[in-house]
Amino acid sequence: MAEFKHGTMDVSAQQKTFHGFIRVAMWIIGLCLAALVFMAVFNS
Fold it and tell me: How far apart are CA 4 and CA 15, in angstroms?
């Protein structure tokens, strides 16, 4: 079995996926907040 060396694995694909997930989550949070503000302003 090969020797494992901590920190040698290429994680660029995982980092790209994680940053994409965070970006989408921030957009969803922003849209939810905008919808709440809209409903508060126009008393929907």
Answer: 21
Distance (Å) of CA 35 to CA 26, 28, 29, 30: 14, 11, 10, 9
Question: With contact defined as beta carbons under 8 Å apart, do 41 and 34 qualify?
Answer: no
* pLDDT band, very low/low/confident/very high, at 26 (cuts 50, 70, 90): very high
Q: Where are the beta strands (DSSP E) in 1-44?
A: none
**The tokens 């503000």 sit on which residue?**
37
pTM above 0.90, yes or no: no
The DSSP symbol for 3 reads P
